[in-house]
Amino acid sequence: MKKGKKIYEGKAKIIYATTDKNLAIQYFKDDATAFNNQKKTTIEGKGVLNNRISEYILSNLSQIGIKNHLVKRLNMREQVIKLVEIIPIEFIIRNVATGSITKRLGIEDGTVLKEPLIEYCLKDDALGDPLISEEHINAFEWANKKEIEKIKKIILRINDFMIGMFRGINIKLIDFKLEFGRLKVNGKNEIILADEISPDTCRLWDSMTDKKLDKDRFRKDLGDLIPAYTEVAKRLGILHEQSNISAVNVTKLSSIKKRK
Ligand code: UDP
Q1: Which of 90, 174, 225, 236 would staple 203 via disulfide (CB 3.0–4.6 Å)?
Q2: Atom 13 of ligand 1 has which residue's CA nearest to it?
Q3: Residue 190: pLDDT above 50?
């Protein structure tokens, strides 16, 4: 399998075709964007950490039977994925209210929700990913009713698993975003989890201190994003405490690779 042409470039990732028509390569960039692309920068080493963290979470989800697009990680910044038809919806799952929902509905920041709340946003940057309802999804046929019912079940399993996984390393899973795709298997469409799960797409707070260990460090100009993502990776056991793979080394390694 060889890397081919760029198929798609998003804000944080690039998808390349491969010589296998069913597979693609997902490349994690260092670019960070927020507020519908109004705030942008490059944070060296972010892509390397997200590649590793997302690989770890998706492999674990696979082990509990949640089908997803990850085939294997290739190197520091790339993974082989199954090419799917992406459903044009961002599924937001909230356990604690923070971010856009607090502004939109006047809910106090940090309110613990009595059960997980799923919100749907249309994946359309030009429109600012507007909030939509299940009725909109039906009306405009972005997904059918059966698909949404299936996705909701999968989402609740993923949420339960991830809450437990993060609780075990003293991190609270506040909210996160998922994307799903359709994959033809024996002539039938299957729903599979796609995209990434990383501190770019989750809100993660330290259980004791509520310190933000996610992209809010960039959104809110809190600084130290790489040390926070590195902390998540270390607690997950991806980077070892005793090893020298510090944020600085992640940065160095990724720039060495780039110079080649
Ligand atoms: N999120 C994401 N991509 C998006 C929008 C949201 O990964 O395009 C994630 C975000 O990181 C957070 C959750 O979804 O973990 C809920 O985000 P919210 O709607 O509060 O976003 P905000 O507008 O506050 O960034």
Answers
A1: 174
A2: 176
A3: yes
